Structure formats: structure tokens, C-alpha cells
Amino acid sequence: MNQTLYLKVSPENTGDLILLCGDPARVDFFTEIFPFFTLISRNREFSIATGEYQGQRFSIVSAGIGAPSTAIALEELKQAGARAVVRIGTMMGLTAPMGSVVIPNGAVCQEGTSHNYLPSGYPAVPHWDLQHDLIAAANQRGLDVLVGLSATFDGFYTHLFPDLAGRQPMDWTEYIRYSVLSVDMETSLIFNLGRFLGLASAAMCLVTVQPGALPNFLDAEKRSDLEHSLLVAAMEGLLAFGKAHPA
Fold it and tell me: How much is the CA Rg of the chain, to the nearest whole Å?
């Protein structure tokens, strides 16, 4: 096949096991940790590096912020032969404390992109085997792992942090009452579109901020150390899944 429209990739230069992040800088950070990964392409918010680790071929891909651009990445990764995707990145903690790692076993779908693929009542849940491998890898790395519900929204300045735009703060009482650990802008789409496309999908994210008129952010040095551990754990969890479920 020719290269895809936005990611500019093909099956020849893309792994079938995918680490999916938002920030292109995280792709660069990853290639510093694993220098045998090679940058394949950069276009808009999409940055892709591919390499081989313990006999398995991986790619790490950035998809920008939010569900619509993430859907583009998943569609094109599927076209290029992907079979498993793990979202790595950050979340805002509600009941999850700062510095913890949330591995959602479901996501409240408050973003609109999923509804273009599946009915509104469809449950946004990860692939169980892949999630299990991520939990095991994160625990082995000594990360503070929390497994439970997350929630996904479309609007950063309308839902996550309206305070920063001078608007009425979001009332998170109901979500806290129903034991939602954390909030982001991608996870429910990744779970739902993964199901639609036949991709095993899961998420593993670091809690780096908590809501408030003056948001509380994780210390930069601690964040860097924890993100390093999270990236390695995600790689190891995806590797375990790949070995247990060969193509």
C-alpha cells in the first residue's frame, strides 16, 4: 500500500504493537530511552518512530490532543497493520492521587467522536489481556497502580479547566461519587475505536494534575522520573502481550 494520508506510514515501516501518546516530544523522549528506535515521519501533530525490542516490532506514535486526531491515528495505524495499541500519557486526577498510574478498566464516554462509530450506550472498555499485562508490568516497576474508571471529554477549557478561561469551574462531585479516578480527552475513544477496528487497546497514564482554580501540578523532576518508568513498563506490558498473542 502507499503511505497513509496523515501519519505518512506503511506496513513496511510500522510495528504491529503501538504505544500511542499525545505529545510528539514524548516520541523523542522514548527514542532517547530506546535508541534503536528510528524516526519514521513527522507531519502536523503526528510523529512516529519504529524499532524492534526482544523480537517484537514496535512503533511509538503521537496523535495530538483529543479524540478526533486520535481517531485519525488509529484508523491509519490499522491500515498499516497495527494489532494492539496502548495509550500512554497523562491524566487529571479526581480520586486518583498525584503521581499514581491509572490503568482504566472502563471509561465514561463524554466525547463525541466515538458516537460516529458505535452507539452511545456501547461500553468503553479495554482489551482484558492487554490491560492485565500492563498492570503486571507496572507493578513490577514499583509504580503506584490504580485500576478503575476514567472519564473522557472533548473540551479542555469547557470541562477539564474552565477556570483557566475565566469560566465557572466544573463540578466533579457526581464523578467522584461514582468512583471515577481520572479524566482525559482520549481514552474512551481508544477503547471504542479499538473495538470497532479490531485492535486490542488499553491505557496506562500518569496523574500529573488535579483540578482547581489554581491547578496542582506534579513536580517536574518527579514527573520526568515517573514518565520514564511508565514508558518502560508500557513497553514491557505490550511486549508480554505480543509474545502471548503472536501475529
Answer: 17
Task: Provide the H-helix boundaries in 141-219.
Answer: 173-177, 187-197
The residue written with cell numbers 515517573 in the block is: 226
Query: Does pTM surpass 0.85?
Result: yes
Q: How far apart are CA 3 and CA 169, in angstroms?
A: 43
For residue 160, the 8-state DSSP code is I
Quick check: 1 pLDDT over 80? no
Average pLDDT score, the chain: 96
Total length of the chain = 247
For 44-49, which contacts have Cβ atoms below 8 Å and span 24 or more sequence positions? 44/6, 45/69, 46/6, 46/7, 46/8, 46/72, 46/73, 48/7, 48/8, 48/9, 48/14
Residue ranges and CATH numbers for the domains of the chain are 11-244 (3.40.50.1580)
Q: For residue 237, give the nearest of 203, 188, 189 by alpha carbon.
A: 203
- The 3 state secondary structure assigned to 1-39 is CCCCCCCCCCHHHCCCEEEEECCHHHHHHHHHHCCCCEE
Phi-psi region of 98 (alpha: psi -120 to 50; beta: other; left: phi over 0): beta
H/E stretch holding 148 reads strand 145-153
Q: Do the Cβ atoms of 233 and 143 come closer than 8 Å?
A: yes
Mean pLDDT of 91-104: 97
The two beta strands, 56-62 and 145-153, are unpaired
Please calculate the CA angle 151-99-147 and round it to the nearest 5 degrees. 45
Which DSSP symbol is given to 124?
Answer: B
